[in-house]
Design brief:
453 residues, Urease, subunit C, domain 1, TIM Barrel, eight-stranded mixed beta sheet, four-stranded parallel beta sheet, 18 strands, binds guanine, binds fe (iii) ion, Guanine deaminase
Length: 453
């Protein structure tokens, strides 16, 4: 039985600079695992009388309520806005290479192996388990280019209870024969069959959505980009994702392939109808004034991937997050970009976001202040939910949202900074976010279901 309520220290974000830490808080779920009440300052001994006064039916009994001891926290599940599921099998390899060399030498040969459904089943089971264990309750996944393997990824997320966008990677050029869609038509037909598969296995969209996934302009012919833009227009429920202004090598080749857009990837993707309010742009490391404005006006989301940006790619530069927030571009979340970089942990992405923002502060001579812990917590939760246009359903514990949450245990054995008797709730939060790991993630809930492997 899933709990109907939690009592203790509850932490969530209401905005980039609005980290909320509630002590002695009572969170009550209704029977379909939506948040019915979040009430602060209820002493433990008053929980029973409070429950009986609430208008939830049937009312939860005290046995349905989980009382969190000191050192445990309830926080929203993490949202990973940019993740390559097949790259789960190549993590740690090819570090410090420039992006196009890394794709050719490490990534494409690895992803080509997903033509084998048995291999896909094995790696995707491990991948989804691995992210759930690390508290990632929602992910926007790139699959490989194979329709069958991509359908296996969707099946795996559904069976294991992870909320996910799943995209068949579209790529019909500038990749080896062994790992390339035959042509634009074949790529689009496979995409349509993957869209149909997700709609068939999760008709209400409770957990899953197909995401249109032109890998990036370099691997897509103009016909393919055009076809995907048409699919985006015809299916307003489908998100779109691509890589955007990641690194010098990538940007230079894109300009060569598409000379007509004045060097602007924003204008290129906009031309093909791929910049919508449901579009997730990974990286955005280099943004001209014009591109900032296009992204803001069109309401695209940014997947900030500071770990991979500082490890592979050759840019060694991460997105100007402070500048985005200053301009009111609040649809910014974190991506692990699993495969690129040294870590697939969203906690590490939060830490590296702090580091990258400090570098930006120095580079901007103090104009772009570094991010603080509340801000990176926002990026990993509500910000990510906004990027995925799921903030009406997840991202924090506002009444009416679905219950995607983690129970954090600061006292679990591991390497997290030990607690002291006098630690405030804020200190415990900081210690976990900066030094905790998956050993401190005791339980994971998606839509109220316990899903920790
Ligand atoms: N650009 C196109 N494909 C990829 C990828 O798999 N990883 C990264 N980091 N950038 C890309
Ligand atoms: Fe990526």
């Amino acid at each position: 039985m899933s709990p109907r309520g939690f009592h203790g220290t509850i932490v969530h974000s209401l905005g980039p600079s609005n980290l909320i830490i509630l002590e002695n808080a009572l969170l009550v779920l209704d029977t379909d695992s939506k948040i019915a009440h979040l009430i602060e300052d209820i002493p433990k001994e008053d929980v029973l009388s409070t429950l009986s006064s609430l208008d939830v039916s049937p009312p939860p009994t005290p046995e349905d309520v989980r009382f969190l001891p000191r050192g445990q926290l309830l926080i929203p599940g993490f949202v990973d806005t940019h993740n390559h599921a097949p790259q789960w099998a190549q993590r740690g390899l090819g570090q410090s290479m420039h992006i196009l060399d890394w794709l050719d030498r490490v990534t494409f040969p690895n992803e080509a192996r997903f033509r084998d459904p048995a291999y896909a089943r094995r790696i995707y089971a491990s991948c989804v388990d691995g992210f759930l264990r690390q508290g990632v309750t929602t992910v926007s996944y790139y699959g490989s280019l194979h329709a069958e393997a991509t359908n296996i990824l969707a099946d795996t997320c559904l069976a294991k209870g992870q909320r996910a966008f799943v995209g068949k990677c579209n790529m019909d050029r500038n990749a080896p024969d062994s790992y390339r869609d035959a042509d634009a038509g074949a790529s689009l037909r496979d995409t349509e069959s993957c869209i149909a598969h997700v709609r068939r296995i999760d008709p209400s969209g409770a957990l899953l959505r197909h995401v249109l996934t032109p890998r990036f302009a370099i691997t897509c012919s103009p016909e393919l980009l055009e076809g995907l833009g048409e699919l985006a227009a015809a299916n307003p429920d489908l998100p779109v994702q691509t890589h955007f202004n990641e690194a010098a090598q990538e940007m230079a080749f894109t300009r060569e392939l598409f000379p007509g857009f004045g060097g602007s990837e924003a204008d290129l993707y906009r031309h093909y109808g791929l910049l919508t309010t449901r579009t997730i742009l990974a990286h955005c490391c280099y943004m001209s004034e014009h591109e900032m404005e296009v992204v803001r006006e069109l309401g695209c989301g940014v997947a900030h991937c500071p770990v991979s940006n500082m490890t592979v790619g050759g840019g060694f530069m991460a997105a100007p997050v402070r500048e985005f927030l200053r301009r009111g571009i609040v649809k910014v979340g974190l991506g692990t970009d699993s495969g690129g970089g040294f870590s697939s942990s969203i906690l590490d992405a939060m830490r590296q976001a702090l580091v990258a923002s400090n570098a930006r502060e120095v580079m901007s001579e103090g104009r772009d202040k570094g991010l603080d812990i509340g801000e990176v917590f926002y990026l990993a939760t509500l910000g990510g939910a906004r990027v995925c246009c799921l903030d009406d359903r997840i991202g924090n514990f506002e009444v009416g949202k679905e219950f995607d949450a983690l129970v954090i245990d600061a006292n679990a054995s591991g390497v997290m900074t030990m607690l002291e008797d006098h630690d405030s709730a804020r200190v415990i939060v900081d210690k976990f976010l900066l030094t905790g790991d998956d050993r401190n993630i005791k339980e994971v809930f998606v839509r109220g279901r316990s899903v920790k492997p």
